[in-house]
Design goal:
Strand order of the largest sheet: 2-1-3-4
Structural class: alpha/beta
Number of helices: 5
Radius of gyration: 15 Å
Number of strands: 4
Distance between the termini: 25 Å
Length: 145
């Protein structure tokens, strides 16, 4: 009811999933949060989360002015998938639950695990371009203002 009475559509929600939730999905979530200005609900998770976020990914994102040093890998839950409109997988294979009615995309991206920041930058830049396209799809040019 609140969404109807608010006079605008609910925020779209996106879940990024990879195996460790330490590199690709964390960078994608950080970019989407940054580029959408809070107009998209963002989640990320892993099918087998690592202990911490990849330091090279943190450094590569810091170069873009985005601080993800406080992020922690999260375990993928059915609820996270059910609560998301778009589920973007990044090499998690069959570990990702499937629910009818959700939009699924699989982004083929190199895994930054064990790589230095020089090798992570091209992955980061690929993710940024994909996230920019996603923002344009989910948030068509604002008609307000």
């Amino acid at each position: 009811m609140d969404e109807l009475t608010a006079g605008h559509a609910p925020r779209p929600s996106v879940l990024f999933v990879c195996v460790h939730n330490a590199g690709r999905s964390q960078m994608a979530a950080a970019y989407l949060t940054h580029l959408s200005g809070g107009r998209i609900e963002v989640r990320s998770a892993g099918s087998a989360p690592a202990d911490s976020v990849n330091p090279a990914a943190v450094e590569a994102m810091a170069e873009e002015g985005i601080d993800m040093s406080a992020e922690t890998p999260k375990f993928l839950t059915d609820e996270a998938v059910q609560d998301s409109d778009v589920v973007i997988t990044m090499g998690c294979g069959d570990a990702c639950p499937f629910y009818p009615g959700k939009r699924y995309e699989d982004w083929k991206l190199e895994d930054p695990a064990g790589k230095g920041v020089e090798s992570v930058r091209p992955i980061r830049d690929d993710i940024k371009a994909r996230v920019q396209r996603l923002v344009a799809e989910l948030l068509p040019a604002d008609t307000t203002g």
